Amino acid sequence: MTGASHRPQQHPSRVSPRFTLSSDTTRALMAIVAAFVLTGVIVALVPELLQGLRSVAGVVKFMIVFTVVLFTWYVALTLTAFARLGPDELTATIRDSEARRNPRLERWLAVDQLSWMLTGAGFALILVAVTVMHGSLRQDPWALAGAALLVVLSWTLMSVSGSVHLLRLDLHRDALGFPDEAPRTFMDYFYVSTTIFTTFAVSDVAATSPRSRRALTAMSISAMTFNTVVVALLVSGIITLVSG
């Protein structure tokens, strides 16, 4: 045929949108179910946890176990969903999940990323404070070890959730100003989030929209509260145990 083009048919790049794990609601529900199941298994193996629910100390130990399992699962699911995706695949995944999500429902169910950041800080603050202030718990090395593990996981949860929140805000590349034009991956946003939760601010990335400025402000306040209050409580508890 005259003028016919025999160029090979162009196929779109292979993109794996990960429909299930890209949804904040789905990841939250999966983590909650897994936490209940695994905590039940742990209770079956260590029946003293269930028997101790009649006391404040027993309830705190049970909640530390449940929260550690919950946070571990949620962080693992989130990293599985986003951490290893290339720039194009990550953008396609976020765009697909944004099209299907219901932000109002997520806020009502407290499964959006800001809610998870507050959950991480809140659970750590309450459980660590009770552990340090309760007479028998602050003398229990296992309780303090569990509280220390909870603090580490809470900080990790806040950093990972902050990364996804910033990633969603910057879907159209109009929320954050990076110093270069290189394609962005999850680790770029994880860098911003972990820097804020470590030093309360980031110097080489600019907030270029009102929503991103509000998000970075909320993250900085959460980081300051967590690092100055929660960590200080845990350190005081460890010092009391060692010196006692």
UniProtKB/TrEMBL annotation:
Identify one Pfam family in the record.
DUF1345
Give TM regions.
Answer: 28-50, 62-83, 114-132, 144-169, 189-207, 219-242
InterPro entries documented for this protein: DUF1345 (IPR009781)
Q: Which UniProt keywords apply?
A: Membrane, Transmembrane, Transmembrane helix
Q: What is this protein called?
A: DUF1345 domain-containing protein
Q: Which organism is it from?
A: Tessaracoccus antarcticus
